User: What shape does this take?
Amino acid sequence: MRYILIASLALFALATAPAALASGGPGSGSTGTGTGTTGGTGGAGMGGPAPTPTPSTPSHPTVPGDVAKIVNGLAYAPSDAPVQVQKAIWAGDAIRHKPYVYGGGHGSWKDSGYDCSGSVSYVLHAAGLIKTSMDSSDFETWGVSGVGQWITVYTNAGHAFVQIAGIRLDTSAEQDPGAPTGSGPRWRPLMKRTGGFRPRHPANF
Assistant: This one.
């Protein structure tokens, strides 16, 4: 009788083992602590972690989202933009009160005034996207042809300006109904009609 009882218990254990494994018992691989398709691991996911928005400070103002904003002539960089884009905008803020000076920004990055291409060169250099200043003709073959996702330089043989994250830095008040005073580089609304200009942009921006 004792042997029959032991044999019965052994058969019962064998019969219930698959059910125990299927219910998530130890070693079943469904606890969420391993790799594979299990949930609850806190992984980065397909696209990796979302970038941390850049906080706004008086010297480096930002606004939430991916579009810049002009407030009383000062440009606020989008907090979700790449750091190169933010640096370009903050550089534009640094020269937004400078007067127009022909050739300004070409002999020295820190100048008493800036012309159109000198202004564009200044902000692109601050963003680490160019090493030397360029005139408007140089920009006609610079970078990649077409409109960029974040930064686009519009240029021809006589003039250049740059549009960054939804705003424009330009020494010309063309298509700016509320143009600020002064003759130098100023933040302005996007230029909607850009016929006669070649759009160029830095790769990946």
Q: What stands out?
A: The CA atoms of residues 128 and 166 lie 20 Å apart. The chain has four helices and nine strands. The helical segments are 2-22, 83-95, 116-126, 136-139.
